[in-house]
Amino acid sequence: xxKWSLPRQGRWRKRRRGExxxxxxxxxxxxxxxxxxxxxxEEKLSSTTLHTLHTTYHLHTQDAxxxxxxxxxxxxxxxxxxxxDVQDFLVHDQAMGVYxxxxxxxxxKPEQQALARRCLSLVQEExxxxxxxxxxxxVL
Length: 140
Description:
By secondary structure, the protein is mainly alpha-helical. It has a single domain (27-139), classed as Serine Threonine Protein Phosphatase 5, Tetratricopeptide repeat, CATH 1.25.40. Helices cover 61% and strands 6% of the residues. Strands 1-2 form a two-stranded antiparallel ribbon. β1 and β2 (13-16) form a beta hairpin. The longest helix has 14 residues, at 64-77. It is elongated and about 70 Å long. The mean pLDDT is 88. It holds the Pfam family Leuk-A4-hydro_C.
């Protein structure tokens, strides 16, 4: 917020308040899911915004529903700094990751497609047969 103030010299100048202190209350998992779903509707989000979300809400440590939405945001906006979160999700939450493989391939970004192939190679033997077949059709 910018306010106008009259300094001693008699000239009007903008006075900026200091950076606002982050005073957010803890969001529940449902609240985080809702927030991330609303952000998924945004056409473009900056890397700074995504990084701030990640560090503020510790998204990589949340439950599978929150991490899934976080990974969707990472893929949609090509936030390569969080690709490790996507890989961890695909490796450890295989049942929920099938949709995410499709998102990685649809984006047509070579780095994301390579990530999908790498993750599939890591978990291919452990996956449920029907899920593996679906993912292989998308990825290979």
